Amino acid sequence: MARLKFLCDADRCIECNACVTACKNEHEVPWGINRRRVVTINDGLPGERSVSMACMHCTDAPCASVCPVDCFYTTDDAVVLHNKDTCIGCGYCSYACPFGAPQYPQTANFGTRGKMDKCTYCSGGPEPDMSEVEYIKYGSNRLAEGKLPLCAEMCSTKSLLAGDGDIIAEIYRERVVTRGYGSGAWGWRTAYGETVTV
Amino acid sequence: MAHNIHRLVVALGLALTLGLFAPQAIAQVNPTAQSVTEDALFEALGNGGSVTGRITIPDAHAGQLIAPENRVWAALQGETLHTISIWAVIGMVALLTLFYLVRGKIRIDGGMSGRKILRFNAIERFAHWTLASTFIILALSGLNIIVGRTVLLPMIGEGAFGTLSAWGKIAHNFLAWPFMVALVMIVVLWLIHNIPNKVDMEWIKQGGGLLKKGVHPPAKKFNAGQKLIFWSVVLGGAALSFTGVMMLFPNEVATFADWQFYQTIHALTAAVLSAIIIAHIYIGSVGMEGAFDAMGSGEVDENWAKEHHSLWVEEVKGDTGSKARPHPAE
């Protein structure tokens, strides 16, 4: 089984936000919810870098360990998913997440949190694969169709990589060696406890 | 002619300047020279730092790219608070069971007199029971948030547990408001009776008469033990209310670090206050004969009052004439 991961090669990211748009369109994500976003570090300064970030599908995911209703589960491909039928929208996962992945529609009482929504690595939820109910709750299930997440698939500079952790780490390592520099595998140490060494 | 030469000189100078400085300008934007790396950023931030940048979406929180310290709170919430909450409840219940086995039910030494004194009027009882009933639901639904997944979930299954927890969250959010109103009511009603004084010192010295039969230190309307309950409820309730409101409106206030802080204080205060309230429920019901009447009918037996609140009885008896209280039928 693969260990699926994201890797954003920040030295290639041109902050076009196509990954963000692709994600929103693919899953019909409602207004105000951002499963993926692009953050620009040192904006306007020499060495500025942009990083595309979503749920990193952590090893030993902190969201899962704080969830009061235990609605998270990890698939065989190490994708961290959750069950919206069980989720109560308490917000604890968003406090625990190092990457700001959990999002909430403002539908619950006092206009605050509804059921949590986050990146599914384009692999839906607990419902049957590619069913309508799954699409409504979690968006499309590209993984079940044999495709990788759309954000990475359509990245114009191939900055955002998705796939098995070992393979994308090797691609990144090769790039760094060839061009002679690399700003690091952003978030890997925090998410997986190890980073890509070149 | 001279004008043209002047122009040529300026142009040459310009070309020379550019020629000299242009390579340097290119070097400044060379990505290999100054590219920002994650490792360097974290090193510069030190412990507890997070990597933050500019974002084009309206949600300002989204500008925080990586906050590794959030994992620390995850461990605190998922393990430490979980353990503390379980032990606060189990520990207090065990302690009270032990106390009951050793000391038994505290009886009225003089027996029931049959004569009643009004201890808490309708408004006081309304405030107390509003506070008490909302607290119990808040405490149970709150405890479910912390320990439910390890205690209740295996027993009733995911579907039932999810539904129950969702209703619990709604109850928790809405019942917080009557709880806060009742909290203000008991402060207004009872603050004056709960200022610590010299009588309390004597009460504490004698252990409140709790441990030995026949020992009854003097007390006014509230003894030192009840004052302790009062201040625990008022201060604990205030802390719970503030941190609770902060969490109820997450988008209006604060950052992730603030939410983590509020949640931790909320859970710790709730665990301690729940343990205190379990003891309060015990002594007000099965633990002591005649105690429940004070909040039940509002009228207590005169002998009970004399034993537990001797100074208060003297106060009340002293001004019997001024208050039109019902005379018992003779």
Describe the structure.
- The complex is a heterodimer of chains A (198) and B (330).
- Chain A has helices at 18-27, 62-66, 92-96, 132-138, 150-153, 165-179, 188-192, and strands spanning 4-8, 37-41, 49-53, 72-74, 80-82, 160-164.
- The mean pLDDT of chain A is 92.
- Chain A has 198 residues and is an alpha+beta fold.
- Chain A has seven helices and six strands, in the order βαββαββαααβαα.
- In chain A, a hairpin with a 7-residue loop joins strand 2 (37-41) and strand 3.
- The two termini of chain A are 25 Å apart.
- With 330 residues, chain B is mainly α.
- Among the domains of chain B are: 122-178; 195-330, Transmembrane di-heme cytochromes, Chain C (Fumarate Reductase Cytochrome B subunit).
- Chain B is built from 13 helices and five strands.
- The longest helix of chain B is centred in the N-terminal third of the chain and has 34 residues, at 70-103.
- Chain B is elongated, with a radius of gyration of 33 Å.
- Chain B starts with a helix and ends in a 12-residue tail after the last helix.
- Mean pLDDT of chain B is 84; it is low at 15-31.
- Chains A and B meet through strand 2, strand 3, helix 2 and helix 3 of A and helix 2, helix 3, strand 1, strand 2 and strand 3 of B.
- Strand 2 (37-41) of chain A pairs antiparallel with strand 2 of chain B, so a sheet runs across the interface.
- Chain B: Residues 119-295 form the Cytochrome b561 bacterial/Ni-hydrogenase domain.
- Chain B: One of its GO terms (biological process) is anaerobic respiration.
- Chain B: It is found in: Cell membrane.
- Chain B: GO terms for molecular function: electron transfer activity; formate dehydrogenase (NAD+) activity; formate dehydrogenase (quinone) activity; metal ion binding.
